[in-house]
Amino acid sequence: MLPAAARLTRSQEFRLVVRRGRRSGRSRLVVHVLLPDQAPEPGRYRGEAPPEAEANTAPTRKSTSSTRVGFVVSKAVGTAVVRHRVTRRLRHLMRDRLAALPAGTLVVVRALPAAADASSRELGADLDAAFRKLRVLSPGGPATGSR
Predict the structure, then answer these.
(1) d(CA 61, CA 13)
(2) Which residues of 61-98 are buried (b: 16+ CB within 10 A; e: fewer)?
(3) Neighbours of 125 (CB within 10 A)
(4) Residue whose C-alpha is closest to residue 144's, from 90, 92, 96, 94
(5) Which among 66, 68, 118 is positioned nearest to 89, based on CA atoms?
(6) Exposed site from 33, 64, 115, 140, fewest CB < 10 Å?
(7) What is the dihedral of CA 14, 108, 95, 1, to 10 degrees?
């Protein structure tokens, strides 16, 4: 399971990553990445407070310097059962890759309809290829424990 502190939860955060981050598309998914040095300054938002300013003070949350991930799996992927299966697989794969990403990185993984029929190994290969193209993995590289 992905820790609560490693999840994107607010629509403003998703919007920020998708609009301002870099993206890499694959046949089964699209990965959007916003590195900490790419994040806009607080005064650059249009009427919205930056996610850092809205930090949740709940005890389960860590500081905003942690790498956080969000998932978008639309109805085009399939029924609710299929969508949840795809989300669980992606969540598990990203948990293994969190340590390889720079601290403070925000990631949104958007599943495409082809992800419904993909195995965990195929989804993991697509994630790794997207991260390599975006050049965001640390020298240690991703975990190779995908099924």
Answers:
(1) 15
(2) eeebeebbbbbbbeeebbeeebbebbbebbbbbbbebb
(3) 16
(4) 96
(5) 118
(6) 140
(7) 50
**Per-residue pLDDT reduced to its tens digit, 80-110:** 999 999 999 999 999 999 989 998 999 999 9
Its pTM stands at: 0.77
Per-residue pLDDT of 14-48, as tens digits, reads 999 999 999 999 999 999 999 988 765 554 544 45
Q: How many CB atoms lie within 10 A of CB 120?
A: 16
Amino acid at 62: K
